[in-house]
Write a structure and sequence with these properties.
Elements: E1 6-10, H1 13-26, E2 31-35, E3 41-43, E4 46-48, H2 50-59, H3 77-84, H4 97-109, H5 114-125, E5 130-134, E6 143-146, E7 151-153, H6 154-160, E8 167-171, H7 179-186, E9 190-193, H8 198-206, H9 211-215, E10 220-224, H10 236-250, H11 257-267, E11 274-278, H12 284-290, E12 293-297, H13 302-313
Parallel strand pairs: 1-2, 1-9, 2-5, 9-10, 10-11, 11-12
Antiparallel strand pairs: 3-4, 6-7, 6-8
The structure holds ligand FO1.
Residues 11-13, 39, 48, 50-51, 53, 69-70, 91-93, 97, 155, 158-159 line the site of ligand FO1.
Length: 314
């Protein structure tokens, strides 16, 4: 990013909704994304970074928009072959997607940092004008303590168990933020907490050493609600909403715009100025009473939302 500009903290699905439109609205070189790595996992010896890949695929026009993850036009013959060999098939790595994980793993094994590897993947995928940075260069897995006493990795719960088992506590990894991500935050004119899960996508980034300290020095910090009052249709958004409801319940918060605003305001007092919520939501007064400035936007329309966010950060 060429001095200043906007940094967007993001997860996968919510990020893929906003990132391409916000990049277009702000113009080349004006947006940096800092992406959650709490969902990353090792799969058959390969390093998989679901949220980084969702953002890279969205920016390069390759994302399967209906599914909300992976590549458009994907096939899953490898998964079928693994299952035929008796391997668990709960995590569906596509045949084309596999190439990304092979290249990432090779580059990591050659000694490159996750920041460097992500930059290289972005270049090879033709992503230009937007920097995509992992929040941490070190493995920072999010764990979930379930109500039944088990402790599980995020993807095992989210994908393997469809986010159905109740969550008692979200255990967010601590550790250093990636140097490039911290440098981008320190130099930013504005930071946007994207419309992603406030606990397991944004909360995991904010938990890393140096991130909140950097944000406290940024003039404009804007948060976008990840939820609307409308009931999500069956599919990835519904699955995502169930996960958000579960982890917010574990923190004592409600899955609503006002609930997310309250979550951020309690955890990070004084950090956020404006809070963007859907124009169909009736939560404006509740958000204002929490001490955040409510701004309404058409949350489900990426270009309309990006225009409102761009206006707030420039
Ligand atoms: N999501 C699923 O619901 N099922 C899957 O089998 C699955 C596989 C997968 C493989 C690679 C990848 O980059 C993402 C994948 N996702 C899958 C998406 C991912 O689990 C979630 O969207 C995020 O981790 C939540 O932000």
């Amino acid at each position: 990013m060429s001095g200043g500009g906007t940094v967007l903290l993001t997860g996968g699905l919510g990020g893929s909704h906003l990132v391409p439109a916000l990049a277009k609205a702000l113009g080349p070189g004006r947006l940096t994304t800092v992406v959650n790595v709490g969902d990353d996992l090792d799969w058959h010896g390969l390093r998989v970074c679901p949220d980084l890949d969702t953002v890279l695929y969205a920016l390069s026009g390759r994302l399967d928009r209906e599914r909300g993850w992976g590549l458009a036009g994907e096939t899953f013959h490898g998964r079928e072959a693994l299952e035929a060999l008796g391997e668990p098939g709960w995590f569906g790595v596509g045949d084309r997607d596999l190439a990304t994980h092979l290249v990432r793993t090779d580059l990591l094994r050659s000694g490159a940092s996750l920041t460097e590897v992500t930059g290289e993947l972005a270049r090879r995928l033709g992503v230009a004008g937007v920097a995509v940075l992992p929040a941490s260069d070190l493995p920072s897995p999010t764990l979930l303590a379930l109500a039944d006493g088990r402790v599980t990795g995020f993807e095992e719960w989210y994908v393997g168990a469809r986010a159905v088992p109740s969550v008692h506590e979200v255990i967010v990894a601590r550790g250093p933020g990636a140097p490039a991500a911290l440098a981008a935050l320190s130099g930013a004119d504005a930071v946007v907490l994207g419309p992603s899960n406030p606990v397991t996508s944004i909360g995991t980034i904010l938990a890393l050493d140096g991130v909140v300290g950097a944000l406290e020095r940024v003039r404009r910090v804007v948060a976008v609600a990840p939820t609307t009052a409308a009931t999500p249709p069956p599919g990835p958004v519904e699955h995502h909403a169930r996960a958000r409801r579960q982890v917010l319940a574990a923190t004592g918060d409600e899955d609503s715009a006002a609930g997310v605003a309250a979550h951020y305001a309690r955890r990070f007092p004084g950090l956020i100025g404006s809070f963007v919520l859907d124009e169909g939501d009736a939560d404006e007064r509740a958000v204002a009473s929490i001490g955040l400035r409510p701004v309404t936007a058409p949350l489900l329309d990426p270009d309309g939302l990006a225009a409102v966010v761009a206006d707030l950060v420039t």
